[in-house]
Write a structure and sequence with these properties.
elongated, 9 helices, 162 residues, mainly alpha
């Protein structure tokens, strides 16, 4: 292996040992470091994948777990972000199965209760609350059910929560 390519390989392997990367991210890094030498970059990426430094499934699982629990993203937003990275539908589905749906539902409830505090006097509050949750990647059915739970919990007679 050419010395320049070996140095790039070592650098990329070191990066992959510290955190998860998907194939498309590593390919971009390889291309950048090899001055757009596509053949050499492809060879490096294939080697990193075969030596299990890079795995789209591992990356997708870690990404889904982090975004679900730390950022309170819903499954739709996580799926879209992973698709944008070029992750296969099978890997996305497997990664989403690893996320805890109960925790995701709890996170949605906490997030909407916190958001409601700033919207409770707004006549468009319910609509804004729903739009906010949809933008975070939750399905309409899940959002609607959670908003109705919050309305029942708070016992609000406010017109927008009816």
């Amino acid at each position: 292996m050419e010395e320049r390519i070996k140095k790039v390989y070592d650098a990329l392997a070191s990066l992959c040992a510290r955190r998860e990367y998907c194939v498309s991210d590593i390919k971009a890094k390889a291309l950048s470091r090899l001055d757009s030498d596509r053949a050499a970059a492809e060879e490096l990426v294939e080697r990193l994948v075969s030596e299990r430094f890079v795995s789209d499934l591992r990356y997708a699982t870690a990404f889904a777990r982090d975004k679900s629990s730390l950022s309170a993203w819903g499954p739709l937003k996580i799926s879209q972000a992973l698709r944008a990275k070029g992750i296969s539908e099978d890997d996305i589905r497997a990664a989403l199965e690893e996320t805890d749906r109960v925790k995701s539902s709890d996170a949605l409830g906490r997030m909407l209760r916190n958001k409601w505090k700033s919207l409770k006097d707004d006549p468009q509050g319910k609509l804004k609350l729903i739009r906010f949750a949809l933008s975070r990647g939750y399905s309409y059915d899940a959002v609607r059910g959670t908003v109705e739970e919050i309305a029942a919990e708070l016992g609000t007679s406010h017109a927008m929560m009816k």
